[in-house]
Backbone:
């Protein structure tokens, strides 16, 4: 990396006070030919976030090993490798009126789907999306589930006799619940713990379907959950409905996770086999931690989180955390390297003040003075910035996003190579589709590119041509509805 040895001009902002301090700072910094101020912090950051091929390979192999260990017994590795009880995927024959309820982050969605079987497929869908008030993420289970059930009741009311049901038959719901759940059957499961910043009391250790049923009863709502699924599983089902080659589903949004089609005869912890010989495994890969290139900023963020030591992969690659890592780097650069000319804006110390969509917008700025970056920094942190400081900020964003995207790619290869090892040629020797959903993947072009680059580097161009990463937008809603239909009590 070429570093020009010129001393930086920090622009007309709050000057560094003493001449000695200024001299020390100037000796610590240089300016790249691109105009970025290079500081020891930036150099260290780029070194510790680097993901050359050997690092990617190590991560992919460790993912494969952890998957195997997690399939032997519960607690066998960081990866929970949860049995989903989804043993067959949609065929296209699914029929009837079903609902899907999706709870996984800051919103919940309710969807009504009219399925028309092989010929008509999805006849009609309607949906509603409701933001979950922030405070409900920290209150009681009853309060959260009452809120959801009342949203569902309002939506169900709008059906207003459009569809009739045979007497004694209840409306059925596919419930997508995007947190780690130990499934006890296709329609029941116990919340192991909350992730993604949720800290609702009273749910962990309890069946989430029972929580929803009780809340529906309190609302006087007569519906039943016929399938409880993770969002990855719902995405896989939704994508498989249209494409038989879908074998893996990945979510890259607020949180991250992956599921895949596994052979039941290679799952030691599963007793008995399914008629299809396959089942879907929810890996909960957000908890993966083996061999990740981490920095002091990741460790500090983890230590300050509500779940220290947990969800390390998620904290390194997913949308909830990328902005926060960048903020922590910028704070240190402002304090130690006078990134903003010696002025350390107070708001730079506010946790989660910088969100991943802001990081993304800054990276899309193509104006010559990086005006968008300047106004985002000003709006969020109330700081004026020189062009050089803005360039440095973009380079920090890129470093964190590049690491995230490439590690996500390595994770995908880890899953694919596990599947390939157990079924030679059936994954890499033919078209294999990875269904992908989540806002981070959808809205962040650089992240997407870094992810794809890592997959191609790891697999080589011949094999990677067969691996199609396909954006399956909102496939999880239809997916959950399809699984509700195929697991209907009345079918
Ligand atoms: C978190 C949850 C996981 C979910 C993922 C994506 O990692 O633990 O269940 O699939 O976020 O929403």
Residues:
């Amino acid at each position: 990396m070429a570093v020009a040895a010129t001393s930086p001009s920090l622009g007309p902002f709050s000057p560094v006070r003493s001449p000695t301090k200024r001299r020390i700072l100037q000796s610590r910094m240089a300016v790249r030919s691109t105009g970025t101020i290079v500081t020891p912090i930036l150099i260290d950051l780029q070194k510790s976030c680097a993901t050359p091929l050997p690092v990617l390979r190590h991560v992919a192999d460790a993912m494969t090993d952890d998957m195997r260990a997690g399939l032997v017994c519960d607690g066998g590795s960081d990866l929970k490798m949860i049995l989903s009880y989804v043993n067959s995927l949609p065929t296209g024959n699914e029929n009837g009126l079903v609902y899907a309820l999706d709870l996984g982050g800051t919103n919940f969605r309710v969807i009504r789907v009219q399925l028309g079987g092989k010929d008509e497929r999805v006849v009609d869908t309607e949906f509603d999306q409701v933001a979950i008030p922030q405070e409900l993420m920290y209150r009681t289970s009853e309060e959260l589930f009452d809120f959801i059930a009342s949203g569902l009741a309002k939506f169900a009311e709008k059906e207003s006799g459009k569809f009739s049901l045979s007497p004694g038959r209840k409306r059925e719901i596919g419930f997508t619940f995007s947190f780690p759940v130990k499934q006890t059957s296709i329609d029941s499961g116990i919340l192991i713990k909350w992730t993604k910043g949720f800290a609702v009391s009273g749910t962990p250790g309890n069946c989430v379907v029972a929580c929803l049923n009780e809340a529906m009863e309190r609302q006087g709502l007569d519906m039943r959950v016929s399938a409880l699924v993770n969002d990855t599983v719902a995405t896989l089902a939704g994508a498989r409905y249209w494409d038989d080659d879908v074998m893996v589903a990945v979510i890259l949004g607020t949180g991250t996770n992956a599921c895949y089609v596994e052979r039941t005869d290679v799952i030691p912890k599963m007793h008995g086999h399914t008629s299809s010989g396959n089942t879907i495994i929810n890996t909960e890969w957000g908890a993966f931690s083996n061999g990740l290139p981490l920095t002091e900023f990741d460790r500090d963020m983890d230590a300050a989180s509500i779940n220290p030591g947990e969800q390390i992969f998620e904290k390194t690659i997913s949308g909830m955390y990328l902005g926060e890592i960048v903020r922590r780097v910028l704070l240190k650069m402002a304090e130690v390297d006078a990134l903003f000319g010696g002025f350390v804006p107070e708001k730079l110390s506010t946790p989660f003040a910088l969100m991943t969509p802001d990081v993304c917008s800054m990276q899309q700025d193509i104006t010559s003075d990086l005006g968008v970056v300047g106004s985002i920094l000003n709006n969020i942190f109330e700081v004026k910035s020189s062009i050089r400081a803005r360039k440095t900020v973009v380079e920090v964003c890129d470093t964190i996003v590049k690491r995230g995207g490439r590690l996500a790619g390595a994770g995908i290869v880890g899953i694919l190579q596990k599947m390939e090892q157990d079924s030679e040629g059936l994954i890499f020797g033919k078209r294999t589709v990875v269904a992908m959903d989540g806002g981070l993947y959808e809205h962040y072009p650089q992240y997407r590119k870094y992810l794809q680059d890592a997959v191609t580097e790891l697999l080589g161009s011949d094999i990677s041509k067969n691996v199609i990463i396909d954006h399956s937008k909102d496939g999880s809603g239809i997916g959950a509805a399809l699984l509700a239909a195929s697991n209907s009590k009345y079918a």
Residues 387-421 form the longest helix (35 residues).
